[in-house]
Design a protein that fits this description.
Shape: globular
CATH superfamily of the largest domain: Alpha-D-Glucose-1,6-Bisphosphate, subunit A, domain 3
CATH class of the largest domain: Alpha Beta
Distance between the termini: 36 Å
Number of domains: 3
Number of strands: 21
């Protein structure tokens, strides 16, 4: 039976050598090529990039061969390249789209296949469904041009994506005050594509950048996976304390996501970071514009929207929903619970490097430490917000489990009254304190996620445990 390639929350991901094979990658590339031909893009340029996972550069070369075989011209990154840098290259090179070989934050056994459009942002769900439909059942139906021949004929061109991106970033943010601030910045690149970028951007001043996990190692030692949450970041948090750093900046495997550790080596969760970045843009930079957020991220954004008079749009989980909404509304900022944030003036794609730089700029402009910035935010909002999440494998049929969750109809969760059920993406039970519980199934892995946010610190675990019960997990 032919393996069916499907696109989840952010692309197709699979286990290397099991379902993520060269033949299947070529099939996926053929589906994307057929889709782009339908879009009237024949003969145009497409950017292809990759991460530092096992054999990623070879999978990327295989994709380039298929695109060339379908008459496209290919800009192939000369090295492992962050997702936001690949996204910017689409715009910089006036390409019609991109293929990115990366499994982002997945375990080391996996690799992935992301597709992007002419904005550098994610293709919408309808487009992804069409790509899936165009993927051939057999690799025999795939068109290919041998790499050496395609390169000789100028169909495949290797290029440096980093330099134009860095020049672009320097237009978005004045880096000199950060360089002059004398900060000690610890960077955990999580063995991924973000290695070297903060050092390159901030060198030449009093600020010192110390990088860890900045080599290529597809096994991702000292962490379960290159995802910027605990326990994967515990080594980085400890190093922050050891070096007495002012802040910890963490980028995930493909550097589209950003995590933050404070000056005490304590993690600032990604919902708080999103609210801090929005607050920085609205308050410190004085900018105005729409906010786009997924259902699974913080209601602090809704409160900020009210305070500053800007619209807030909620979407399903994944940048395939966020990016189109950002483009439609020319949003100031867009983001999701996983630590991915995108900004106006940049491409509509998560950018862990720019997010980290904006956080440093927030510190420098206010003269405050990360803990003090957080207190500023809570003072503005009039409350502190607490968040946690449990990821768990599940047994049985997903549809049956979803039906059971829908039928549960709890009146209270964690001792708080349920005020509304939202089924935009998963099952979000909104609570009387303005907080929420969300139960949803991962689009890229066979796991179920239970998330919550509340203004009651002592109710976080009770809410999560009630969520597991609603989901039928003891």
């Amino acid at each position: 039976m032919t393996y069916k390639i499907t696109f989840g929350t952010d692309g197709w991901r699979g286990v290397i050598a099991e379902d993520y094979t060269f033949d299947n990658v070529r099939r996926a590339a053929q589906g994307y090529a057929a889709y782009m031909l339908e879009q009237g893009r024949a003969g145009q340029w497409i950017v292809v990039g990759h991460d530092k996972r096992f054999a990623s550069e070879h999978f990327a070369a295989a994709v380039a061969e298929v695109l060339a075989g379908n008459g496209f011209r290919v800009y192939l990154t000369q090295e492992a390249t962050p997702t936001p840098v690949i996204a910017y290259a689409v715009v910089d090179k006036k390409a019609c789209g991109a293929v990115n070989i990366t499994a982002s934050h997945n375990p080391p056994t996996d690799n992935g296949f992301k597709v992007r459009n002419e904005t550098g942002g994610a293709i919408d769900p309808a487009g992804l469904k069409r790509i899936e439909a165009l993927i051939p059942d057999s690799v025999e139906e795939v068109k290919r041009q041998p790499y050496a021949q395609a390169e000789k004929e100028g169909q495949i061109v290797k290029f440096d994506a980093a330099s134009p991106y860095i020049a672009h970033i320097q237009k978005l943010i004045d880096l000199q005050p950060i360089k002059d601030a004398g900060l000690t910045v610890l960077v955990d690149a999580m063995w991924g594509n973000g290695a070297g970028y903060f050092t390159r951007l901030l060198e030449g001043g009093k600020t010192k950048v110390i990088e860890i996990h900045n080599q290529r190692n597809p096994l991702f030692p000292e962490m379960k996976r290159p995802e910027p949450i605990r326990p994967n970041i515990d080594v980085g948090l400890r190093a922050t304390r050891e070096h007495r750093a002012d802040v910890l900046l963490i980028t995930d495997g493909d550097a589209d996501r950003c995590g933050i550790g404070d000056e005490n080596g304590e993690f600032i969760n990604q919902l708080r970071v999103y609210a801090l970045l929005a607050y920085y843009l609205l308050e410190v930079r004085g900018e105005r514009g729409d906010i786009v957020k997924t259902l699974s991220t913080t209601t602090m954004l809704n409160k900020l929207g009210q305070l500053y008079g800007v619209p807030v749009h909620e979407t399903g989980v994944g940048f395939k929903y966020v990016a189109p909404k950002m483009t439609e509304t020319n949003a100031l900022i867009g983001g999701e619970e996983s630590g991915g944030y995108a900004f106006r003036g940049n491409v509509p794609e998560r950018d862990g490097i720019l997010a980290g730089l904006y956080f440093l700029d927030f510190m420098v402009r206010t003269g405050k430490k990360p803990t003090e910035l957080l207190q500023m935010l809570f003072d503005k909002l009039g409350a502190e917000y607490y968040y946690d999440r449990i990821d768990t494998p599940f047994k049985g049929n997903r549809a049956d489990r979803e039906a059971a969750i829908l039928a549960a109809k709890p009146q209270t969760i964690g001792g708080l009254k349920v005020t509304e059920l939202v089924t935009l993406d998963g099952f979000q039970f909104r609570l009387e304190d303005g907080g929420w519980l969300l139960i949803r199934f991962s689009g890229t892995e066979p796991i179920m996620r239970v998330y919550c946010e509340t203004t009651h610190k002592n109710k976080v675990q009770a809410i999560l445990q009630d969520g597991l019960k609603v989901a039928g997990i003891a």
